[in-house]
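Researcher: We're teaching a course module on how sequence relates to structure. For the next exercise, students receive a sequence and then see the predicted structure as tokens, so they can try to spot secondary structure elements on their own. Here is the exercise chain.
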Amino acid sequence: MSGRRGYARPLDGADRITARAEADELLIEADKVVRSTDPYLAGHFPGVTLYPAVFLLDGIRQAVGAELHRVPSLAAHLGPGGPGEDWLELGALDSARVLRPMLEGDGLRLLIRVTPGRPGALRAALDCRRADGVQVAKATVELVRGGTS
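Model: And here is the predicted structure for the students to work with:
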């Protein structure tokens, strides 16, 4: 055994992210195209590429983490964080519903509204739609500060 371990490259939760601050809220639009060539989808249902809903949850986490700086009051609501402690993690899944399958070639738009939650947590509500406007999923999650790695 060589001691080397092979890991897939990290999941890209979004291909493009835009965001704007609105009072004590963060409004995010993140776009993701489902591609069978993405390394984390290899072998995910032979003959059909089906985007797992759990990847939407990580897309929320990544998008909010990337854009949280736009609303300092939300970052402060999470509590103090030092160097390396700004990683967001899923604290709770309050609700989730997949309404339609997300298939290869589908352009997904993740519309995320982030507001303060309980002390030390943020609430993120997702409305996910295909490029044709059809809603494919919705979820509400709690995000908290993660560890240092």
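Model: If you want an answer key for the exercise: The longest helix spans residues 53-67. Strands lie at 16-22, 25-33, 88-98, 107-116, 122-130, 135-145.
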